Amino acid sequence: MGNMLGVMATRDAQRMAESRGLDLVEITPNAVPPVCKIMDYGKFKYEESIKAKKARKSQKVQKVKEIKFHPGTDTNDFEYKLKQIRGFLQEGCKVKLTLQYRGRENAHRELGEDVINRVLEALRDECFVEQAPKTLGRVLGALIGPPRKNAPKQQGQQPQGARPAEEPQGEE
Known about the structure:
With 172 residues, this protein is an alpha+beta fold. The protein has four helices and six strands, in the order αββαβαβαββ.
């Protein structure tokens, strides 16, 4: 098997498949003449389903956790929420930071922005900001994720084992 048998009548191809105990499967029906293959169709479908299961299993589903803040979030609550965020990031989850303004808090939106900026500053080295803080109505939101493995190096840092660039030597 695996050899091309060339152009033949459909009846001959069906007889050949039946004599081998296999099926005649149409691969490309729009070609002229149509391309067919002699194979065990049940086995083929089974192998395809196994491949699909493996592909689904290897897919990583990204979870998004949400942590809510208010402009008046006190230091102890703030530290506890930071601890929760760090745990979520270590698990590989993304974290949605939301800050909702209530009543008179709307008049002092800068307080809420300061809270979110404090969170981002505290987690600067431990996360990647996917969506910068943005206000939608009464809610200020940001999205952070675990640090990226291939994140670009910050300026001033050299890759490990790299030598500093030598200055070109001029003629004296």
